[in-house]
Each structure stands twice: as C-alpha cells, then as structure tokens.
UniProtKB/TrEMBL annotation:
Residues 144-353 form the ABC transmembrane type-1 domain. Residues 1-21 are annotated as: Disordered. Belongs to the binding-protein-dependent transport system permease family. CysTW subfamily. One of its GO terms (molecular function) is phosphate transmembrane transporter activity. The lineage of its organism: Bacteria, Bacillati, Actinomycetota, Actinomycetes, Micrococcales. One of its GO terms (biological process) is phosphate ion transmembrane transport. Keywords: Cell membrane, Membrane, Phosphate transport, Transmembrane, Transmembrane helix, Transport. This is Phosphate transport system permease protein PstA.
Length: 367
C-alpha cells in the first residue's frame, strides 16, 4: 500500500521574485511627451533670444523633444515598471519618432508651398496666360491646360502598354526567358534619369522631323517612357496576388482564359491597378527636364499637341523662378502658385482614382 504525501502549504517554496510590477497610467506617456517638448522649446527659445521669431527652428525643436521624451520614458518606466516595459516603451517611441521625423520634410514642404502659393491663387491666375504680360499680373491657364493634355497623352500611351505587359508576365509568360528579359528591362527602365527619356525622344524626332522640333506629343512620349515601368511593376504585383482559385473556378465553368482575365482577374485587382496608375502619373506630372527639352515653353495658349511648343506647369514654374524679371516678387509668386496648382491637381486625381476604384471594385456580401 502506497501513501501519497501532499505537501502542506507551508512547505511550498515561494517564488524568489514577484511577477507583478507597477504600471504607468495611460496619461503618463503623453504628459512626459508634453514636458519634453516644453523643455526643448524653452531651450531653443532661449537660444533664439534677440533674433527674428521667424528663425525659431520648429523641426529641430520637435526632434530634440522626441530625444528628451525617449530618455524620460526609459528612465521613469525602468523605475516604476520594469526593464522589459521600459525597453518596450523605448522601441515604441523610436518607431513613432521615426514616423514623425519622416513626416517633417513633407509637412514643411506643403506648408511652404501653400503659404507662398496662396499669394497668387486667384481668378486671374487661372484665367489669363502670360501673353503680352511683363511684370505683375498674368496667369498660368496655358500651362495648366498644357500639363493636363500632355499628362493625359502620356497616360493613354502608357496604361495600355504597361497593363498588357503585366498581364503577359503574370498570365502567359511565367517561367519563360522572354518574360525574365522583359522584367529585367523594366527594372532597368525604372531607374533611368528623366533627362535621358527627354533626350531619347528629342533625338528620335530630330532624326525623323528635323532638329529643334518641339511638340506636345513629344512630351507625352517622354513621360510615357517614365510611366510604363511604374505601371508594369505595380500592375504585375497586384495581378499576382489575385487568388488562383478565382481563375480555376472560371476555367471549370468553361470560360476561356482571355475572358477570365477581363471578367475575373482585372476587376478583382482594379483598385490596386488604379493606384499604381496614379503613382505613375504622380511620378511624371512634375517632371521638368524632359518637358523643357521636348515641349519647350510659350507665353500663350496652344492646345495642339502636334504643332508648336506648349507650356506646362513644371516648366512654367522653373522659368518664372530661374529667370525673374522686375518686380522679382511677381515672378516668384507665380512660380509658387504653379507649384501649388500641381499639388492640387495630383490630389484631385488621387481622389478621383479612389472613387472610381470604389465604384468598380468587386462587391463583397453586397457591400
């Protein structure tokens, strides 16, 4: 007969340390962040005493404040909570701080463009060209129309070519040498400088039409050289993530491959494809060097893309800032307003792309 010995409560060995520790309240990190920013702002305000208040460095104040916050949260969390919690909070602060630092140049750029561009963001700017304008006044309506037409032409050229190339790479050329060669060339084209695209188109038209030829269609072709690789790579990745089960279900119903691509694959990936197209447009709409070579600049309206030079917003902004007349401020104001107009156009196009993608995207559960 065996007897089982049950240890008494007093004989159980107690743990050598407790797993419970203190915990900072939810408001504590925000309070420490506020204190860190106040300390940083105080230091830089003291350094800036006697100088113009506009010289106060907001970006550097935020960066130094984030560094102070990381040190504070690390020390206080170690004392109140534990070292493990302190390291976790430090890593969270580092990731969040990196995000804020990455946003600072973008916020600074947008702020500068908006503040300076609003000075000439008026009705005259959007209804007048620069024909017979010397000094103040005038506008960029000719450059706005030129940018829209040339970018539209580049999109009409690039999207069908890029989309059909990506369809071939995903649906037909998997594992083939030709597909690998196309992928390699597309990767090479992605990294070419924009000036090279402009020189290529300018050289081709110089051989065919004659030296010194500049037309709107040349600008569209130069931009399409830059757009096609972006559309191909973006569309290719999105077509690859379409589940194969959808293709197989269509094949099982007897649907041919080409119709499966049109009716199943493309509608499934339409939202992402539109996003990649918008990225490509955003990539080229602000290019200056290829348009300066292929399109040139004029002071009046020209809507014929196959005859004569045209004005575009990037080139217009560059020429106004690079070669100002008298008064200088009038030319710089027009340059900033053109830059702000470009940003607004890109934002509007992105919103339209999102709306179109939402309308045409496949509905799930009737939503």
């Amino acid at each position: 007969m065996t007897t089982t010995l049950t240890p008494s409560p007093s004989s159980v060995v107690a743990p050598t340390h407790s797993t419970s520790a203190g915990h900072l309240p939810k408001w504590a990190p925000w309070a420490l962040l506020l204190v860190a920013f106040i300390v940083s702002a105080t230091i830089f305000a003291f350094v800036n005493v006697g100088n113009d208040p506009a010289d106060f460095n907001i970006a550097l104040t935020l960066v130094v404040g984030l560094i102070f916050y990381m040190a504070l949260i690390m020390v206080i969390s170690t004392l109140v909570e534990s070292r493990r919690h302190a390291i976790d909070r430090l890593m969270t602060a580092l990731v969040s701080g990196a995000f804020v630092v990455a946003l600072l140049p973008l916020i600074s750029l947008l702020y500068t463009v908006v503040v300076n561009g609003l000075m000439r963001f008026d009705g005259e700017f959007f209804s007048f060209s620069m024909r017979n304008i010397v000094g103040e006044g005038g506008g960029a309506v000719h450059a706005i129309w030129g940018t829209l037409l040339i970018t539209l032409g580049a999109t009409v050229i690039s999207v069908p070519i890029g989309l059909m190339t990506s369809i071939y790479l995903v649906e037909y050329g998997e594992g083939r040498k030709l597909a690998r060669g196309i992928t390699f060339l597309v990767d090479v084209m992605t990294g070419i400088p924009s000036i090279v695209a402009g020189l290529f188109i300018y050289s081709v038209f110089s051989l065919i039409v004659g030296p010194g030829t500049r037309m709107g269609i040349m600008g569209s072709l130069a931009l399409s050289v830059l757009m096609i690789p972006v559309v191909v790579r973006g569309s290719e990745e999105l077509l690859r993530i379409v589940p194969n089960e959808l293709r197989e279900a269509a094949y099982a119903l007897g649907v041919p491959k080409w119709l499966t691509i049109i009716k199943v694959v493309l509608p499934t990936a339409i939202a992402g494809i539109l996003t990649s197209v918008m990225l490509a447009i955003s990539r080229v709409i602000g290019e200056t060097a290829p348009l300066l070579l292929t399109v040139g600049i004029v002071q009046g309206m020209n809507l014929n893309m196959f005859s004569g030079q045209m004005a575009t917003l990037p080139v217009f902004s560059y020429m106004q800032a690079k070669y100002p007349g008298i008064p200088v401020d009038a030319y710089l104001d027009r340059a900033w307003a053109a830059a702000l107009t470009l940003i607004v156009i890109v934002m509007v196009l992105n919103l339209l792309a999102r709306i179109i993608a939402k309308v045409f995207a496949p509905k799930i559960n009737g939503r």
